[in-house]
Design goal:
The protein is 41% helix and 8% strand. By secondary structure, it is of the alpha/beta class. Helix 6 links the parallel strand 4 and strand 5. The structure holds zinc ion (ZN). The site of zinc ion (ZN) has 5 residues, from helix 3.
Length: 298
C-alpha cells in the first residue's frame, strides 16, 4: 500500500483492506494487527465541497495514523470507510443521506463483529462527523461489540473532537458513556498547537468551513468543483446559540442557504497540513494506549 497520496488519495479505498486480497487480509488478521475504522457520512458540505467530505476526512486520518503507527513499529490496517450515518440537521439538502439510529447501530455492529470474526479483535474507531445522534450510534455499536469480547475503542482527537465532545450537555442529551478502556482522547502536541495558531485565519465555524475546506483543498483537490470560487464565498457566522437553535429546529437551510457555517473563503492548502499533524497526535495516543493496555482479547 503506497503512501503517495498525491496520486491515489482520491479513492476512499486507497490504503484500506478493500484494496487488499483476502489472503493478505487473513494474514494481517492472524497477526493480531490493530484495525482503524473510519466512520463518517454522506452529507451536504456547501456549494464548494463534495458530499463525502467527512468520509474523506475520516479516511485521511485513519490512513495517516496507520503510517505514523508503522514508524513506531505498530502494525495496523484500515477498514473501508463506513459512511451511511445520521444527519438529522441537514437532511433538507439534496445529497445528504441519513438512516435511522437503529439501522446504523445494527449495520455498524454487524460489520465490526465480522472484522473481529476474521481476527481483528482490537479496533480503533474514529468518527469525522459532529451530529450527536451519529456519535451516539457509534458508541452503541462499540458497546455492543465490547459486550461480545471485542476490544473496540473510540478515538477522539484533532479539532473534530470539539464537535463530538460528550460533555456538551446542551447538545448531547446523554453524555457518551464510555469508560477509560473504551475511549482515547488524543492530546494536541505543542507542534500542532503552534501550527494551528499560525495557519487558522477564522475564529469560528462548524461545517464546510476553513478547516474542512482546507482539508479537501490539500488532500482531495480532485473533488473540488472548479466552477465555484471559494475565495468569494461570504462567511456565515451566526452566534453559537442561534446555530444550535437552528440545528435543533430544522432551520439549517434558512440559517445558511448554501449549507456551510463558518468562513470557507480563508481556507488554504497549507492549512490542510493541520490534519496530518492531528493524525500524528492521534497515532501517538493510540500507541501509548496500546502500550499501557495490552489487548484483553488478542
Ligand atoms: Zn464535515
Amino acid at each position: 500500500m503506497s503512501t503517495d497520496r498525491g496520486k491515489e488519495g482520491y479513492s476512499i479505498f486507497a490504503g484500506t483492506i478493500a484494496d487488499m486480497s483476502w489472503p493478505a487480509v487473513e494474514a494481517a488478521a492472524q497477526n493480531g494487527t490493530a484495525m482503524l475504522v473510519p466512520v463518517a457520512v454522506i452529507e451536504q458540505h456547501g456549494p464548494h465541497l463534495p458530499l463525502a467530505t467527512d468520509t474523506y476526512g475520516a479516511h485521511f486520518l485513519c490512513t495517516r495514523i496507520r503510517e505514523e503507527l508503522a514508524k513506531v513499529g505498530v502494525e495496523a490496517v484500515v477498514a473501508p470507510p463506513y459512511y451511511y450515518g445520521l444527519n438529522p440537521t441537514t437532511g433538507m439538502f439534496p445529497g445528504t443521506v441519513t438512516v435511522a439510529p437503529d439501522t446504523m447501530v445494527r449495520i455498524l455492529t454487524e460489520i465490526l463483529l465480522q472484522y473481529a470474526g476474521w481476527g481483528f479483535k482490537r479496533q480503533f474507531i474514529l468518527s469525522h462527523h459532529g451530529a450527536p445522534e451519529h456519535n451516539q450510534a457509534v458508541v452503541e455499536a462499540i458497546q455492543a461489540i465490547r459486550a461480545q469480547g471485542v476490544d473496540a475503542v473510540m478515538v477522539m482527537g484533532g479539532f473534530i473532537q470539539h464537535f463530538i465532545e460528550p460533555s456538551y450537555t446542551s447538545v448531547y442529551r446523554h453524555p457518551i458513556p464510555l469508560d477509560d478502556d473504551a475511549l482515547i482522547r488524543a492530546p494536541e502536541s505543542a507542534e500542532t498547537k503552534a501550527a494551528r495558531k499560525r495557519l487558522m485565519r477564522s475564529d469560528w465555524g462548524v461545517h464546510a468551513e476553513e478547516r474542512e475546506t482546507s482539508l479537501i483543498m490539500r488532500w482531495f483537490p480532485e473533488t473540488l468543483d472548479p466552477s465555484v470560487d471559494i475565495a468569494q464565498l461570504e462567511p456565515v457566522l451566526p452566534p453559537i446559540e442561534e446555530f444550535n437553535r437552528a440545528a435543533a429546529n430544522h432551520g439549517w437551510r434558512d440559517l445558511s442557504p448554501l449549507g456551510y457555517i463558518g468562513d470557507p473563503s480563508v481556507a488554504t492548502r497549507e492549512n490542510g497540513e493541520l490534519y496530518a499533524l492531528e493524525a500524528a497526535d492521534m497515532a501517538q495516543a493510540i500507541a501509548d494506549f496500546m502500550a499501557l493496555r495490552p489487548s484483553r482479547s488478542v
